[in-house]
Write a structure and sequence with these properties.
heterodimer, A: mainly alpha, 16 helices, about 60% helix, B: alpha/beta, 4-stranded antiparallel β-sheet, 16 strands, binds iron/sulfur cluster
């Protein structure tokens, strides 16, 4: 390391820290999270807490193992945020070990093996999410019905514990498919969308969030609200979220216009799945997204394109996690080719001509 | 109103808390007691140091020449007050290293007696050459911190057929208000200085750019310039680093200076408002540059303000005058907090470039410890030069200095915007300055080895030549001998 005695400027800095940034993101997630916990009740709360505490434990454990000071790293809230995002992407009634294994995958495989914060190539939460989906397809595609807190169908505290720790065995009737999953199965049986969609999709409910799905998927509106907060606080810029949303909307509009019986409308695409969460909270991850505004626009549009492609023609109904991981892998490439223009030089770095 | 088109011309930059309210409404104080001793460094400009023309024991009047300029780029130094030269020796310079440089020590006699009669000259009766000669003789240098001799710039302007003179009234550094106050109080003098410069450069027009957080200065300057159609006073957005000449040039003229070029290549030259005022005083009143306005501010300053200070005054005396609480002062900075230098001691003289002295408290400078980069790209969007600070820092960290140059290290202007915004407290600018210094050192070392090699080569060649000559001579001698022998033999035969 260099000897950096502060003899030259700047002698002042903006009042912003890594922890400050992470906490703003968490604040922005709170409305959608609370709503999700309200919709899915005790089992969701259990899973949420388990995932977060496991992640903090793994973070502590890894840092101790590497002989690094653990407290400052824990304080920067980055592990907390990763776990939070992971928990939000899980089926809310998944068993306890899904949270534990997921947290372990995210922290150890997604972050610490690369050398810790800032070094990873892939978004840790999405890496864990996809690894879980591939390893435990059943648990990861069992979606709880919406059963708001204190409503008749909501499990009480004891049932909640049972679901989290003993499984869903005798409560099967309270699960089903997500919108995207359902229409995918229907389409594979050559049922037109006009028939299948009516059973499961209600536009208002979808935008508000009264739908089956993971914690993060439910309320597009609350997620947009949180994203707006991050934009307002200048934690993120508009480039990635907007390019994702616009590209998904545009592509789906074109295909929907071509054949509305096979291709979902932009509204269904935008209101379902982890799209809004991905657009505002996951694709915008600093570490794994490009550095320049133009690079971010390319990244975002490609993410949108991939999300649509995977949802429409891929093996999984869920496109966001895969799309983001794929684009994470391309980020270094984008950063290599898309650089800002240096003052007084052209894009190739040659001095401007007079 | 700032048009949308123009705001697209601003790239990068940051908005540090201006912190100017402490001093912006206080008139410039001129009752600062004359120091008993003055320490006048002989190099207060870029270029060669000045050569003393006085001797120890000499009595000098205020404004009398102490040292004349040497070489093409240099500026003379004058006595800031009247008194006796007590020594000419090395003394620490106001620089983080406090390395000693040649300095004239003076004991003032309290009379503050001017050498020159206050003759008033009509600048517009002088030729353009005469103007720059006089500006040069008055020791005026760029007072915004660049300290480039003003006369050299005027000549440059005349040679390059400059179309627009830009006057920087930006003062984008936090805390500093010396230019702001000068504009408020001496707008007429500044405008006069600008007219003189235009005359001296044979340039048709001038644009004064003033940040929009200085409305009083803007009004004063606008009024002062009202009668002169060739001078336009414009507001520019408050934005750091608006004082960077290339940022201001692009904003005000829309032109971009090529990377390997100078401002003159696009027909523009920039001077600072304080320089314009110094030129006004030099030409109108025959007063060389012997004092300047200094902002003293910072959390530890009990009574911050702007003061007319004689060059050579010890900063410690200014601190006492402004009731700086030394125990609260965690860092002493000369210049602004973005680009200024931290000084190791306060017993250093004020020089022509000293725009501000900041006594900063721990709260004002606190930054946490350095953490891992989270690739947030804030440094990239903050960079007005369009560089990738994070990538450059990474390359420097792994000692790939050349590859840092490849991605623009030499285009960095050390403005500090990147360090300012980094949430991980990575001292990016320090890396860049370190790398630049290291590269220069390496180049020098390389130059030295090459020089040595050349000398050795030459020596070898010389030896070779001598050997060859010797061999040739020997061969000639031998041939002569043989010839003689054959001749002798022939003689015998006959
Ligand atoms: S601002 Fe700091 S943390 Fe962010 S990318 Fe630049 S160096 Fe890294
Ligand atoms: S210090 Fe250099 S790299 Fe940093 S913002 Fe300024 S010009 Fe860019």
């Amino acid at each position: 390391m260099l000897n950096v005695k502060p003899t030259t400027g700047p002698h002042t800095t903006e009042n912003l820290s890594i922890g400050g940034i992470m906490r703003q993101v968490i604040y922005a997630l709170i409305p959608a999270t609370l709503f999700g916990l309200y919709l899915f009740g005790w089992p969701a709360i259990n899973l949420f807490l388990i995932t977060i505490f496991s992640a903090l434990f793994f973070e502590y454990f890894c840092l101790k193992l590497a002989d690094k000071p653990a407290l400052p790293a824990l304080k920067d809230s980055s592990a907390l945020l990763t776990a939070w995002l992971l928990a939000m992407s899980l089926p809310p009634w998944a068993p306890w070990w899904v949270g534990v294994i997921g947290a372990g995958l995210a922290i150890i495989l997604g972050k610490q093996v690369y050398g810790g914060l800032g070094q990873n190539l892939f978004n840790p939460a999405m890496l864990a999410r996809v690894a879980l989906l591939i390893s435990f397809p059943l648990e990861l595609t069992t979606w709880a019905n919406v059963a708001p807190w204190l409503s008749e169908s909501a499990p009480d505290f004891k049932t909640g514990l049972h679901i989290t720790f003993m499984g869903l065995d005798n409560i099967d009737s309270s699960t089903g498919a997500t919108v995207l999953g359902y229409v995918k199965t229907e389409l594979s049986q050559k049922h037109p969308l006009s028939a299948s969609l009516a059973d499961i999709y209600n536009s208002n409910n979808a935008w508000l969030g009264f739908m089956r799905g993971s914690l993060s998927e439910t309320s597009a509106i609350l997620l947009i609200l949180g994203g707006g907060w991050l934009l307002f606080k200048k934690i993120i810029t508009w480039h990635i979220p907007l390019s994702i949303i616009i590209s998904v909307a545009l592509i789906s509009a074109v295909f929907h216009a071509l054949n509305p019986e096979i291709y979902l409308s932009p509204s269904v695409h935008l209101s379902s799945g982890a799209l809004m969460c991905a657009a505002f909270f996951i694709a915008t991850d600093y570490v794994t997204s490009p550095n320049t505004p133009l690079g971010q626009l390319i990244f975002g549009s490609a993410c949108g394109l991939l999300i649509f492609t995977i949802r429409t023609w891929g093996g999984y109904p869920e496109g966001a996690a895969f799309a983001i991981l794929l684009m994470n892998a391309l980020t270094p490439l984008i950063d290599h080719y898309v650089k800002p223009r240096i003052y007084g030089r052209d894009r190739q770095g040659r001095p401007l001509e007079l | 109103m700032i048009s949308l088109m123009q705001s697209f011309r601003i790239r990068g930059g940051v908005h540090p808390d201006p912190k100017k309210t402490a001093t912006t409404d206080l008139s410039i104080a001129s009752d600062f007691p004359l120091p008993k001793k003055l320490y006048i460094p002989l190099q207060q400009h870029v270029g060669k140091p000045a050569e003393p023309v006085v001797r120890v024991g000499d009595y000098v009047y205020k404004g009398q020449l102490l040292a004349h300029s040497q070489g093409m780029i240099s500026a003379p130094v004058h006595a800031p007050s009247s008194g006796v030269v007590t020594d000419i020796a090395d003394y620490p310079a106001p620089h983080p290293s406090a390395l000693p440089i040649r300095t004239v020590f003076m004991e003032t006699d309290g009379k503050d007696a001017w050498q020159l009669l206050q003759t008033h000259t009509d600048p517009f009766a002088l030729s353009a050459e005469e103007i720059s000669l006089r500006v040069g003789a008055a020791g005026v240098v760029g007072m915004g911190g660049a300290t480039f001799p003003a006369a050299v710039k005027l000549n440059l302007g005349r040679k390059n057929k400059i179309s627009t003179l830009l006057i920087n009234g930006g003062e984008c550094e936090p805390y500093l208000t010396c230019d702001d106050r000068l504009m408020q109080e001496s707008a007429d003098g500044i405008i006069d200085g600008i007219r003189i410069m235009l005359h001296g450069m044979e340039t048709p027009q001038a644009i004064v750019g003033i940040e929009d957080n200085k409305p009083a200065a803007f009004r004063a300057m606008k009024n002062a310039a009202a009668d002169y159609r060739q001078i336009e006073v414009r507001q520019v957005p408050t934005h750091y680093p608006m004082g960077w000449d290339r940022q201001l040039i692009r904003y005000l003229t829309g032109k971009e200076v090529p990377a390997d070029g100078r401002a003159t290549d696009v027909g523009v030259l920039m001077h600072n408002v304080a320089t314009a005022y110094a030129i006004h005083k030099a030409i109108r009143h025959n007063r060389p540059l012997v004092d300047r306005v200094v902002t003293i501010a910072g959390g530890a300053a009990g009574s911050p303000g702007n003061i007319w200070v004689p060059i050579g005054t010890l900063i410690s005396e200014l601190l006492d005058y402004c009731r700086v609480n030394r125990t609260r002062m965690a860092r002493l900075v000369m210049g602004g907090p973005m680009m200024g230098d931290a000084l190791p001691i306060a017993e250093l003289p004020v020089v022509k470039a000293t725009s501000g002295i900041l006594a900063l408290t721990q709260d004002e400078i606190t930054r946490g410890s350095e953490q891992a980069c989270i690739r947030c790209a804030r440094c990239i969007s903050a960079c007005p030069a369009g560089l990738l600070p994070v990538d450059m820092a990474n390359r420097i960290r792994s000692n790939q200095l050349e590859s840092a140059v490849d991605i623009g290290l030499k285009d960095c202007i050390s403005c500090g915007s990147c360090s300012y915004v980094c949430p991980s407290n990575i001292p990016l600018v320090h890396y860049f300055k370190y790398a630049a210094g290291e590269l220069a050192a390496r180049q020098q070392a390389q130059h030295k080895t090459e020089q040595t090699k050349k000398l050795i080569d030459e020596r070898n060649k010389r030896i070779e030549r001598i050997e060859k000559q010797k061999a040739e001579e020997a061969a000639r001698e031998l041939a002569a001998k043989v010839a003689k022998y054959t001749a002798d033999q022939a003689e015998q035969v006959i």
